[in-house]
Design goal:
single chain, alpha/beta, 2 domains, seven-stranded mixed β-sheet, 16 strands
């Protein structure tokens, strides 16, 4: 096992920004650590970026995709810094990525556990793992088995418990499969709709992505009476002007199937998905799905960023100037990390959902109303709020490490 510590640097940096060859920009906030891991026996490559720990230890999920890069992991880690700060959670920002070419369950477990062991020195004192694209409660169980530390990851199975010292109570996992992120995204959408004068009951919605976030967003949107008319995933896209059959969708979600297998709905191209007129668009998939190729096709009043970094900031600014109300990713999808904090503290699922709702609604309302009053992009508003919190904590600390 080879672990390269590429960066160990204080957050007090010169005002000029230096650029790392792999396109990581260092600034006054971090990153504090950039770690590259390579296991020659498995041909496993992975990255850990701990961006900023002024508020608390680094928290962020483990992404497993075939093309994840250290630059992507850094961008996600920085987003976690702002997300945790804005949600008033005592966690810093971090993220991990494993280059996963695909394979069976046995190989995937070997990849996860090899990476977990390689960065064990950081967990859980500097970094706590969690689910992300390509990982879930199963992978988090593999992770804590490899590190031998129950607290080295959150999003673990509910049946995986730890007995508290001196107590009869157990501290159990709260898997993201409970739907905390999707729940928070929908709560953010409801706040945005209210501010925009749109009744959620009957509001039309398009969902890009039908994994953990998108599928639960569909569930909670339906409970609110919103009408999801278009869904896109890895396999394609479907459209139904009247919305989708509830019983059929329940079967789809119960079997983790693709909505493209539904009968009696119109199959459309992913390119045409972006052209569907809707009240609310929720990109809940991967990075940069809204880009130069489709940004001019969008016909929506509100975009709620369920996925991390669904578009670059220049695209986001362009849409904002066109009058689209945008709830930034680190505001809308903070439900997952709020859930992680609840699990870390030993809260119950009921306490977790209440915390997600309270925090997401309060922050979304504050950010959007400030944006409307000032005419400033919601991302900039939220960023200023988050940065102010981090800067305050950084000034209070005498040393980074």
């Amino acid at each position: 096992m080879i672990v390269f510590l590429l960066l160990l640097k204080k957050y007090i940096m010169p005002k000029t920004t230096t650029k790392y060859p792999v396109e990581i920009n260092y600034d006054n906030f971090g990153p504090e650590y950039v770690v590259k891991v390579y296991d020659p026996l498995l041909n496993m490559r992975g990255f850990l970026v701990i961006d900023n720990t002024a508020i608390g230890l680094g928290k962020g999920g483990v992404r497993m995709t075939p093309d994840v890069t250290v630059e992507e992991v850094f961008r996600l880690a920085r987003t976690m810094t702002w997300k945790n700060s804005l949600a008033s959670i005592p966690f810093g920002g971090a993220k991990a990525g494993i280059v996963w070419p695909g394979g069976d369950e046995k190989l995937k477990k070997q990849f996860v556990q090899s990476f977990a062991k390689a960065i064990k020195v950081f967990t859980p004192t500097k970094y706590v793992a969690g689910p992300d694209v390509g990982t879930g409660e199963r992978e988090m169980q593999w992770w804590v088995e490899a590190t031998g530390n129950w607290r080295s990851a959150t999003g673990k199975p509910a049946k995986l418990c730890l007995k508290r010292p001196g107590s009869t109570k157990k501290q159990c996992g709260i898997p993201h499969e409970f739907g905390s992120t999707g729940f928070g995204v929908v709560k953010a959408a409801a706040v945005a709709a209210e501010i925009a004068g749109i009744n959620m009951k009957g509001a039309t919605v398009a969902l890009h992505g039908f994994g953990n976030v998108g599928s639960f967003a569909y569930k909670f949107l339906s409970q609110m009476g919103a009408k999801v008319v278009a869904i896109a995933d890895f396999y394609g896209a479907v459209f139904s002007k009247a919305g989708f059959d509830k019983q059929a969708m329940q079967k789809i979600m119960a079997t983790n199937s693709s909505p493209t297998t539904l009968r009696g709905v119109k199959k459309i191209s992913v390119a045409d998905f972006w052209k569907i007129p809707v009240d609310i668009l929720i990109p809940a998939s991967v990075t940069d799905v809204i880009n130069a190729s489709n940004k001019n096709d969008l016909q929506t009043k509100i975009i709620v960023e369920g996925g991390n970094i669904p578009m670059r900031e220049d695209v986001e600014n362009e849409l904002f100037k066109q009058g689209v109300m945008i709830v930034p990713d680190f505001v809308a999808n903070a439900g997952g990390v709020i859930s992680s904090y609840a699990e870390y503290r030993g809260y119950s699922p009921e306490q977790m959902f209440a915390m997600v709702e309270n925090k997401i609604c309060a922050v979304t309302k504050k950010v959007l109303l400030t944006s409307l009053k000032s005419g400033v992009n919601p991302r900039q508003v939220a960023m200023e709020m988050a940065q102010k919190n981090v800067e305050l904590k950084m000034r209070q600390k005498k040393m980074t490490f």
